[in-house]
Design a protein that fits this description.
A four-stranded parallel β-sheet has the order 2-1-3-6, with helices on both faces. It has a two-stranded antiparallel ribbon with strand order 4-5. The chain has a single domain, classed as Rossmann fold (3-Layer(aba) Sandwich), CATH 3.40.50. The protein has helices at residues 27-31, 46-57, 82-88, 115-123, 127-148, 165-168, 175-178, 187-190, 195-198, 205-212, 228-243, 257-269; strands spanning 6-10, 35-38, 63-69, 76-79, 105-108, 151-156. Helix 1 links the parallel strand 1 and strand 2. Helix content is 40%, strand content 11%. With 270 residues, it is an alpha/beta fold.
Length: 270
């Protein structure tokens, strides 16, 4: 697709706009791209978030890729068995495909571990190794963007290097954890951790920003999924200053504040 001004967004449930407006909802208002592609899907782990971003970018000539990575205790399984695909498509989180015509796809269930995932989580899951894989995927993504001259920016939806989504779903998060990197303080992660690759990422993420600024980010029904008003503040104070260095701003997003407040009020009532 020939376009000199295209934006690809990738993320998981916190980025997804199907429930209420998130920061991704206001990118078009700010930057007026010719092409806007949002690949965010609930339940995705970081591997598939980045794969979907790259897959979408490869169809465009001059993409700017905006990725919001998520907690590392979520993982994506690639499924090829037709019988298993049929079974898993009946689950809460069905198979996610890179192409509609694909006969295979990924089973991504977020911080929900049904069936075999529960067994794997109990017996084989390693938080240290899963953090290591996220570091690898970030470096792979950055290398690919450099090779293709793709503009890109990575955000986190939470302090992914210090807390898990399992913890966030309890509503527990301290300000100290928002700026910590305890999950990469091990020999495996330190073997590849290169500060040059990560020092431009705002590591507290959306939820960490909310916690540090005493904004709401947790509710008993939606758990660690901040409402629209918190997204708006994160957008104006963290995302816009970063993206304005990559993309020429076209409009203010001040007009989006009323929408954010309206949806936040509805969320607070639920």
């Amino acid at each position: 697709m020939n376009s000199y001004n295209s934006i690809v967004v990738a993320g998981s449930s916190i980025t997804d706009t199907s429930a209420w407006p998130t920061w991704a909802s206001w990118l078009e208002q700010r930057y007026q791209p010719d092409v806007f592609v949002d690949t965010s899907v609930k339940g995705l782990g970081n591997e598939l978030i980045l794969l979907k971003a790259v897959h979408a970018a490869q169809k465009l000539d001059y993409p700017t890729i905006i990725v919001q990575l998520t907690a590392v205790d979520k993982w994506d399984w690639h499924i090829e068995s037709s019988d298993l695909l049929t079974t898993l498509n009946k689950e809460k989180h069905p198979i996610v495909k890179l192409n509609l015509e694909d006969s295979h796809g990924f089973w991504s269930t977020g911080c929900h571990w049904p069936l075999w995932k529960e067994y794997y989580k109990t017996n084989y899951f390693s938080l240290e190794y899963q953090t290591f894989k996220t570091l690898l995927h970030i470096q792979w993504f950055q290398m690919l963007c450099k090779q293709n001259s793709w503009k890109h920016y990575i955000f986190f939806d939470s302090p992914v290097f210090s807390v898990t989504e399992e913890q966030l779903n309890t509503g527990q998060l301290t300000k100290q954890e928002c700026v910590a990197d305890t999950l990469i303080q091990n020999a495996l992660c330190k073997s590849i951790y290169n500060l040059d690759n990560f020092d431009q990422i705002y590591q507290p993420g959306l939820i960490g920003y909310a916690c540090l600024h005493d904004l709401p980010w947790y509710s008993s029904r939606f758990k660690g999924h901040p409402g629209s008003l918190t997204h708006y503040h994160f957008m104006t104070n963290i995302i816009v200053p970063a993206l304005d260095k990559l993309l020429p701003p076209q409009n203010s997003i001040e007009s989006c504040l009323d929408e954010a407040v309206r949806f936040q009020t509805l969320i607070d009532k639920i």
